[in-house]
Amino acid sequence: MSQEDLFAAPVQEQAARLRAQLNEHAHRYHVLDEPSIPDAEYDRLFQSLQALEAAHPELITADSPTQRVSGSVLDGFQPVRHAVPMLSIRTETDTEASGAEAFDARVRRELELSESDPAVQYAAELKFDGLAINLRYEHGVLLQAATRGDGETGEDVTQNIRTIGQIPLRLQGVSAEVIEVRGEVYMRRDDFEALNERQREQGAKTFVNPRNAAAGAVRQLDPAIAAQRPLSFFAYGLGEVRGWAPPPTHSALLDALSAMGLPVCAERAVAEGASGPSGLVAFHQAIGAQRDQLPFDIDGVVYKVNRRDLQERLGFVTREPRWAVAHKYPAQEQLTVVEGIDIQVGRTGKLTPVARLKPVFVGGVTVTNATLHNLFELRRKRVRVGDTVIVRRAGDVIPEVVGVVPGQRPSYVPNFHMPRACPVCGSAVVRERDEVNHRCTGGLYCAAQRKQALLHFAQRRAMDIEGLGDKLVDQLVDGEVVRTLPELYKLGVMKLAALDRMADKSAQNLMASLEKSKHTTLPRFLFGLGIRHVGEATAKDLARHFGQIDRIMDATEEQLLAVRDVGPIVARSIRTFFEQPHNREVVEQLRACGVSWPEHDGAAVLDPETLPLHGKTLVLTGTLPTLSRDEAKALIEAAGGKVSGSVSKKTHWVVAGEEAGSKLDKARELGLSVLDEAGLLMLLRGDA
Ligand code: IVH
Questions:
Q1: From CA 268, how far away is CA 272, in angstroms rounded?
Q2: Is the distance from CB of 125 to CB of 236 less than 8 angstroms?
Q3: Does residue 604 have a pLDDT over 50?
Q4: Contact assessment for residue 367 and residue 360, using Cβ atoms and an 8 Å cutoff
Q5: How confident is the model at residue 203, as a pLDDT?
Q6: Which of 87, 190, 326, 577 satisfies CB 3.0 to 4.6 Å to 531 for a cystine?
Q7: Using a 6 Å CB cutoff, which residues line ligand 1?
Q8: Which of 302, 314, 319 to probe ligand 1 with, by most ligand atoms within 8 A of CB?
Q9: Could you say which of 605, 637, 669 is where a domain stops?
Q10: What's the pLDDT tens digit per position in 245-254?
């Protein structure tokens, strides 16, 4: 149906259609990761719905996307008694095949199966490291969300859970009386890193790990703050169900939940037949090998008896079902001792204090260094040499010191101080006002900064130049063989082979990977340039929005701000980067060296001329019945119009509310059209 037909329908129907459209687009964006319309179009639909609801508050429903962030600051949370208790999972410490075999043997014994009976089928999935939540849908609409609490009684955290874009406010295709969906609310590692980075920049307290950050957000009393904490969700089970017959197996249940619009993790398997237990161990090992690359923390895998009738027969003992077991992985946090504090100089000249540690096995690898981020973090955490600290290593992020174990300091140790001169190049170290970071002022004179810029460009997630690691970059920079990024592509085999310890074979391999890296993608290239505040996600957003590097290089701050998740700091940083002639030169030279990627026309940007108020100027006066001045202004601007503070011959419409004053008199004098709020809303819909 076209927009015009849509607006001809009765308001109630219009609102229902807009809600359905918006919910569908949100599902594609948040759950499927396949946005179907440009962000600006989504915003426009959203604003239309907001305007409709503002004019007709009786149209607001619990599943309206405008209601995601709503409600007031609470004094505390109401208790919620779970209709079906929320259980926990027994952990099997033996992660070898014998552990899985023991579980299978136990299940078979409880089910009184003999050796001649067929194998039991198991569903294997991830054990997410977040917090369990019960989502209660009645007639398909999300009405309540509660934490696990003690398993019997949790807390009502509905306001906060509604802000999670991935959680559908209405289930697709089911309107059963009650469906309670259980799953894990968690924070992705990249979202966690970005959140902590923001906290650090503001000198605010950082979160210890994604689980704590997620738990804090869920139990935040102010829903507006919760909405700013980026949370995600995976469904993994059911609570109370009335009026719906769930599929007969757990794996089919997860498929059904996914079809209802709930996010379900794709990393799962069914271990079949006689290979049952060994299939489970294979899953544990395969996921273990992938663990670092997952975008979120897991602390193990879970095996569940697949048939739900068998699950029921097995039942549970003291809060733990007999039909499920968890196999853990090495912990991502460990204790060790700080043996020294060193300084590292990064790509942007930032001086980072790094704790030298007594080697410790964390998150599957041995860690000897962990970042302390900056002087203020170090002071806030009160870290000194000799302290026993908690080290966290998760995914391929740099291990960090998350805190000190109190009362373990051996004796008096002096406090740590930042050096005044860069330990690498001797340039002055400065800290700007309102900045938490100390920086070396040496710029590309500083070898450390040049090295880091090269390593950043070459990394797997950027240009993926295999073989260009720390040692080689040290040689290239220290030997002044490579000073800028494009010079990498001007290296010849001869120059390379002339380096110390560089065999002909490795020189040729590097040449081959340099050649291969030239065929890249725009997001990788952009990320590789090392523009401050442009991480992988922002690089992707920019590439999707603009499609072409030249458009990004020439984009104004305003145009950059139109990209989802790009705020003023990021926009400024991108603009500053491309205002520097030498940075544009680097891009040109890299292209001249043959670095290339496919480009497109950018997101289908709405043609402003099709907006209903394009080129029109409106003046607001008096108090409107439902819209505040700011809301009315936002709606007019979203529809392509301008709001002016004074009435003149150039004014197209004056919107007058109660107690309108001299502006209304002036409008009458000039013979201008005067509208009330209803008239404005019609205008916004393009009906006038
Ligand atoms: S099933 C068997 N499945 O682990 C009924 N729980 O120890 C219990 N968890 O509180 C829940 N991933 O927070 C289940 N794939 C998964 C899970 C999972 C993480 C958490 C959940 C629960 C705890 C139980």
A1: 13
A2: yes
A3: no
A4: yes
A5: 81
A6: 577
A7: 87-89, 125-128, 132, 148, 184, 236-237, 302, 321, 324
A8: 302
A9: 605
A10: 999 999 999 9
- Burial environment of residue 150 by CB neighbours within 10 A (0 to 12, 13 to 18, 19 or more): exposed
Q: Which residues contact 20 (CB under 8 A, 6 or more apart)?
A: none
Lowest mean pLDDT among 129-133, 169-173, 632-636: 632-636
How many structural domains compose the chain? Answer: 5
Look at residue 155 and give its three-state secondary structure: strand
Identify the three-state secondary structure at position 563: coil
Which single residue is written with the structure tokens 């026993």? Answer: 388
Q: Are residues 375 and 523 in the same domain?
A: no
Q: With contact defined as beta carbons under 8 Å apart, do 565 and 538 qualify?
A: yes
CA 167 to CA 133: how far, in whole Å? 11
Assess whether 205 carries a catalytic annotation.
no
β-strand pairing of 642-644 with 617-621: parallel
User: Residue 145: which of 251, 198, 217, 194 has the closest Cα?
Assistant: 217
Residue 92 in any domain: the answer is no
- Contact predicate 526/534, CB 8 Å: yes
Together in a domain, 455 and 468: yes
Tokens of 464: 């993926």
Domain containing 345 equals 333-404
| b/e map 78-95, b = 16+ CB within 10 Å | eebebeeebbebbebeeb
Note the pTM of the prediction, 2 decimals. 0.73
Q: For 464-501, how does the pLDDT look when each residue is reduced to its tens digit (9 = 90+)?
A: 999 999 999 999 999 989 989 999 999 888 888 888 88
Let me know: does 292 contact 282? Beta carbons within 8 Å.
no
Look at ligand 1, atom 17, and give the residue with the nearest C-alpha.
127
If you measure from the C-alpha of residue 132 to the centroid of ligand 1, how many angstroms do you get, rounded to a whole number? 7
Q: Are 450 and 506 contained in the same domain?
A: yes
What letter would DSSP give residue 423?
Answer: T
Whole-angstrom CA distances from 114 to 105, 106, 108, 373, 640 are 10, 12, 8, 59, 74
How high is the mean pLDDT of the chain?
Answer: 90
Spacing, Cα 430 to ligand 1 middle (Å): 48
60: which residues sit within 8 A by CB, 6+ positions away? 53, 66, 67
Q: What is the DSSP string of 468-516?
A: --HHHHHHHHHTTS--SHHHHTT--HHHHHTSTT--HHHHHHHHHHHHH
